[in-house]
Amino acid sequence: MTLRRFFRRSREDAELVQELESHIQHEIDDNIARGMSAEETHRQALLKLGNPLVIRDRVWESNRLGWLENLWRDLHYAARILARNPGFTLVALLVMALGIGANTAIYSFLDSLLLRSLPVADPKSLVVVSWHAKPWSRGDDRNFVMESMSGTTYADAKLGVISGIFPYPAFPLMHDDAVFSHVFSYCHTREVRTLSISIKGQADTATGELVSGDYFNGLEVVPAAGRPILEDDDRIGAPAVAVLSYAFSEAHFGGAANAAGQSILINNLPFTVVGIAPPEFFGVDPSMAPDVYLPMHSNLLLGAQIPFGFSAADYLDQNSYWMEVMARLRSGVSMAQAEAKLAPRFHQWVAGTAKKDKERENLPVLFLREGAGGLDTLRQRFSKPLFVLMTLVVLILGIACANVANLLLSRAASRKREIALRLSEGASRMRVIGQLLTESVLLAFAGGALGVLIAVWGIRFLAVLMSLGPNDTSFHAELNWHVLAAAAGLSLLTGLLFGLAPALQSTDLNLAETLKETRTVQARARRSAWPFSATQVLVVGQIAISLLMLVAAGLFVRTLANLQSVNLGFNRENLLLLQVNARQSGHQDADISPFYENLRERLAAIPGVRSASLTGGSLIQGESSMPISLPGQKPRDDTRFAVVGPGFMSTMQISLVAGREIDSRDRPGSQPVAVINEEFARLNFPGRNPVGQHLMLWKGDDDKDLARDMEIVGVSRNATYGGLRRETLPVVYFAYNQGYPQPNEMMFVLRTVGDPTAFVNSVREVVHQADPRLPISDIQTQNAEIAESLHQEIMLAELCTAFAILALIIASVGLYGTISYTVARRTGELGIRMALGARRGPVVWMVLREVCVLAAVGLAISIPIALGTSRLIGSFLFGMKPNDPLALGVAVMILLAAALLAGCVPARKAAYIDPMTALRHE
Amino acid sequence: MAGNPQASGAMVQGTLDMLILRTLITGPAHGHTIAHVIEHASENVLEVEQGSLYPALHRLEHRGWVSSYWGVSENNRKAKFYKLTAAGRKQLSAETNRWRSVVAAIGRVLGETAE
């Protein structure tokens, strides 16, 4: 049977009518020829042919397409049935839409995280060169060849530590023409993390990436305008050039074509814009998305300006790891083949860089990773929380399915007679099951369509939650075809899932009995060995899942609360932070400290600003260390420090235990001073008064080159340093303007009266007055900075709470429906009891007992699961154990309260049944 | 095909198709002529159930054994003519052979029992 015939059958039928008409005419002709009378001829002709309708019907039938017609009819019927029960349909649609929508939204992020390829030619042939090693101890007893690093290392369950950073001298080893067509490198050393850009007198900040000469050619990225950075640009002494990102060129030049060939100042150094990257290109690390690409060797130009900046010696240092390497495989060469060639070569080389036996025992081992998706910074950061969220939304979908299945089951009970009638009229059981499944799948698809709408909104919401700030666009998801296909597949699956059990149950009937049944007989549930009905099993499942989600939400919320209430050691309210870098705007060493001091005084003079100070970096986000020692001791190069301006402690409201803070007495040229925290005092001056003691700050790891001999003038309380999750660290605070190291980028801290955001405009104005060339790279409140550092915890806590509430609502509705149905079924029985003098209390209890049994069974199933699985999210938690009794207890309480609430309404209804009405009901 | 209301048993199942094809071997014909020719050729022994004729013609057309076109009949009336196709010709000879062997076999069986 072909579809063509199926769709042509109306035309064929019309033709058949004509054909039969023609037949009758011929018959009449014959009859007339035989001499029959005029009326008789027509009658006889019709008689001989038979009923033309029957003939047409037989031809029509032969052109049927059974399944398609059935499907169409079923859909039609299903739509009618659904439209006839708008209440049921609306609830079911909403539940499915929420379930499918949440899944689609989260899945779209996983999709873009795990499946996205770099927008370059043939991404599959790209490999990331990496190494792995066993974890090593840091600090003095470091037993590892990597003496200094700029970049990231990751803990890996199987391999120990993984990283993609290499020393420059290892770079030539990787150029192997036999296996790679291109080898290129890039890095984000601190020289380029925040650049000050001046375009036609307008100052702004930008993020940069350093790239080797073969970077753009190796990636096969064609510039939107101009030319890429080439090998000749990446040499010492080559003219300074830059390639801009498309978005940056649009924002600052009004388009790619206008930007090419322009001169700009980067950190007050002249650069020529030679090209613009294509719009879709975001670099090789989706989390970075640089604004400006510079040739690798320009880090010498930029580094020369700043203390501890990049120098030519760093290019020769075999133990300084900082550049990341990517390569393109030649066609026909596998990753394993390339790795087999490179790994031994690197091993031999790196063995030569080891200085002691302990280092030789744990040398980094080179291996290759797929480069198609770009660097996995985003994957490292987001895949685990996303998998947690995905698990939660799948659970929600499970609850939603159970709920709709339940609704269908209770509806199936009221449709028993209809179904029995259809079966008795000869419809096969398969046909009726097909019909019922069509109904549920139609429902699921409608829910899925609504769900996609919810997902569109959800993706936007999630993007905001996941981004690090309002301007962070590095991680975005979209509804592409595989996400939509997944949503459609999910709809079909859920439709079948929640439709199958009710369909099977409701078509398994004793026809004669069902048709004869009255309400009374129906009320008698069939007894079986299994004490629970399908409905009750589904409700128990929903309760169990809800508890899991409540526990997860409880753990995340408590983690967030613990982090929020960490004793910071300073007052986080009414603090405004702003970041500037005077050096990048052309200020020289001698001029920088006076400029910062002048700016501090100007900022402190703003009406409403109580006090202003400055520090080298945020206490929440960064940490730095320098070689510092007590007199006569070996310097420890891991001593944490913060350079601060006058009045830092009083501005931050870090209280002092002894002595004084660093103030305006401590100027360039006066006795260098330091303040230590209690932890430093406890470790280094046990039982002694540290005030008046001295600390030595060294320029190198050994005690040869003294930078400062500092007098300890005060001891402060411990304040957070290096992040909220960090343990208490020993910290030394010293003045930013008393010699080596020279000040560089600075963060000003302002203690304001009232809301700090009200001061943003006046602060910008003051900075502009002080130096119009100086851009503010970041300005935010202390609370906002803390929230930013907690964004993952906030995201998990908020989403998880929302999901848990959603799950609880859906489960409560399910429970309510089930109990209501029980009460309705037992109306007659309850009426009789009431008539016989039963009091309301016992009746209410009878109903609530079912609620309690269901809840208890649900809890009995899920509490062990919760205890077993909460360990999986242990790494997200802070300040408690995974099996936190409080989180579990609160979750159980909330669940029981919700269950009782859901059961109360039908129980009340049962208690107020009027015996007369109930009995008349029969 | 469910719901066949008329089954007078006048014609063995499947033989109508063969007879229609046989009729068309002499040239195109319309439904009325086909019925008439079959009845006439069988000396009115076989009565074509006219209710089955048109479904059969449509079936044969869908199988590609006959093709059809609208034309003018000998009575000067518009009529749908059916024409044997090459596939139909092949089908006819296969059907005829099968029929002959079945008839021969039945004849042998009847002959044996008659003795």
Description:
The complex is a heterodimer of chains A (922) and B (115). Chain A has 922 residues and is α+β, with helices and mostly antiparallel strands. Chain A is built from 30 helices and 28 strands. The longest helix of chain A has 38 residues, at 377-414. By secondary structure, chain B is of the alpha+beta class. Chain B is 56% helix and 14% strand. Chains A and B meet through helix 1 and helix 3 of A and helix 2, helix 3 and strand 3 of B.
Structural features:
heterodimer, A: 922 residues, alpha+beta, 15-stranded mixed β-sheet, 6-stranded mixed barrel, B: 115 residues, 56% helix, disordered N terminus
Quaternary structure type: heterodimer
Number of helical elements of chain A: 30
* Shape field of chain B: globular
Structural Rg of chain A: 38 Å
Amount of beta strand of chain A = 15-25%
Q: Tell me, briefly, the overall form of chain A.
A: globular
Strand order of the largest sheet of chain B: 1-3-2
In percent, how helical is the residue content of chain B?
55-70%
Structural class of chain A: alpha+beta
Stretches of chain B where pLDDT falls below 50 for ≥5 residues?
1-10
Overall pLDDT of chain B: 80
Low-confidence stretches of chain A: 519-529
Calculate the terminal CA-CA distance of chain A, rounded to whole Å: 52 Å
Gyration radius of chain B, in Å: 16 Å
Helical content band of chain A = 40-55%
